[in-house]
Specification:
The chain has about 250 residues and is of the alpha/beta class. It has 7 helices and 12 strands. The structure holds NADP nicotinamide-adenine-dinucleotide phosphate.
Length: about 250
């Protein structure tokens, strides 16, 4: 049976893990940044590998036959490194990267290349919803804005890193009606979003459109040179077509 390492951190990875369990000798790997609910029948390892060397060692020690990378579209370091190490080890590698979001005519989006550029957009009166995750918060510390909020899945371990901000806690999915109610209650005037793509987290963009809230859309890192597909079905086909370990 093909020994497949599935790099996770997205809803697509969970979907793949459910579908591949039993079909291949599967291990799902998570960085461990959030407390993800366990998947029944899926062997899961949690935590970093210890850089490129640790990853290469892990592949060799576990006899991994192929690497399917379904990490988040912004987890660029992990994808680049995994592709390079797998290729050096002579193992098939594929990234599943869902398409980015596209604006509708009624949307009011400003596209920016990175977080630093996003942090320069708000004005002093803006009330900003940062849907960008806690890892990038330090980059917003000098942002002009009246108030800001950052939502995270697990309860925060420390105080918000700068005075005008506040954490909100919530686990997706967030229905559009709830996003509308939240943005109205907070008086949000600007939404900052990474171009993560995907249907599940699109509801905040739909809510912003409904309320006429401006959106700052951070472009995804360019990983166009890595072998990739954009749907779970395509990734499953790739797995089906992997050579049997005994054929190799
Ligand atoms: P990153 O900057 O590309 O990677 C940082 C380090 O995290 C990697 O060098 C690796 O540590 C470890 N890592 C990342 N994904 C891993 C996995 N699936 N299994 C084991 N170790 C992993 O990644 P990131 O942006 O910090 O994201 C971390 C995780 O959160 C990813 O799995 C990603 O899918 C998920 N996520 C990220 C975002 C985002 O906006 N960036 C959003 C939602 C979910 P070692 O070098 O020690 O191996």
């Amino acid at each position: 049976m093909t020994r497949l390492l599935l790099l996770g951190g997205t809803s697509e990875a969970r979907d793949l893990a459910r579908q591949l369990a039993g079909q291949v000798d599967l291990t799902l790997s998570l960085a461990g940044r959030t407390r993800a609910p366990e998947l029944d029948g899926v062997r899961t390892r949690i935590g970093g590998f210890g850089g490129a060397e640790g990853f290469a060692r892990h592949l060799a020690e576990t006899g991994t036959d192929a690497v399917l990378d379904a990490t988040h579209p912004f987890a660029a370091e992990m994808s680049r490194r995994s592709a390079a190490v797998a290729t050096r080890a002579g193992l098939p590698y594929l990234m599943l990267r869902r398409p980015g979001w596209q604006p509708d005519p009624e949307d009011d989006w400003i596209r920016v290349p990175d977080t630093a550029a996003a942090a320069r957009v708000p004005g002093r009166a803006d009330r900003v919803f940062l849907a960008t995750g806690r890892q990038t918060l330090p980059e917003f510390a000098r942002m002009r804005a009246a108030r800001c909020w950052c939502r995270q899945i697990d309860p925060p371990e420390g105080a918000f890193p700068f005075p005008k901000g506040e954490f909100l806690v919530g686990r997706p999915p967030f229905p559009e009606t709830e996003e509308i109610a939240l943005f109205e209650r907070l008086g949000v005037t600007l939404l900052v979003v990474k171009d993560a793509g995907g249907a599940a987290s699109r509801s905040k963009l739909d809510a912003a459109r409904a309320l006429g809230i401006r959106v700052v859309m951070i472009d995804r890192p360019d990983l166009s040179d890595l072998p990739q597909v954009s749907t779970v079905a395509q990734a499953l086909t790739w797995v089906e077509e992997l050579p049997c370990p005994s054929d190799a």
